[in-house]
Amino acid sequence: MQRIDTSRKADIRYVIGSTGAGKSSYVKKEVAGDKRILIFDPDDEYGDIAGMVTVYNATDLLERVKAAKTSDLRIRLVAEGQKAFEFVCDVAFTWTNCTLIAEELADVTKPSFAPPAWGRVVRRGARKRNIRIFATTQRPANADKVIFTQATMIRTGLLGNDTDRKTVASEMDIPASEIGALDELDFLEYHKRGRHLYGGNLKNDIYKKIN
């Protein structure tokens, strides 16, 4: 485990949107310069990141991370289910000083239940262990609420479900109609520090402050 700098501010980003909204494209762009990356990748979306190591079971993941120790490593576990998800969270918490990408929370968490390993890495890992977190989902109304309370930034693209739009709008302190008006690859981004709202379009590389 590397020495931890607890003076750093948490960086927890919740990236939301229907299929095709550009969630993984955004995350890949943001982590392009990160040297220690750990991904729970049930839909096999992150294999094109340069230098990415792919494993398909917990044993191989653990062996690779242990061998890396404090060295650089980009690795993903292509597996499904809550057990695999929690294992990745546990490994990230122990490894420290890394970027954790957790794909599709609604498949492995519930609105009233955050699995213990996930809750721990979100509540304590971001600042105390310098773990940068990106979490994604298509169905925020069906995922745990801990990520909403801990996220430093919430980014939403197009959402086809009214319940999902209302859930996200409430957390971003905007009318649900603003999310409903989003077009393909449009996004709204709410930064909790300062309560600033940004918007833009991923395809056209538009990014501007709204308030």
Plain-language structure description:
- It is a single chain.
- With about 210 residues, the chain is α/β, with parallel strands linked by helices.
- It has one domain: P-loop containing nucleotide triphosphate hydrolases (Rossmann fold).
- The protein has seven helices and ten strands.
- A ten-stranded mixed sheet has the order 3-4-2-5-6-1-7-8-9-10, with helices on both faces.
- Strand 8 and strand 9 form a beta hairpin.
- The longest helix has 14 residues.
- It is globular.
- The N and C termini lie far apart (about 40 Å).
- The mean pLDDT is about 95.
How would you summarize what this structure contains?
By secondary structure, the chain is an alpha/beta fold.
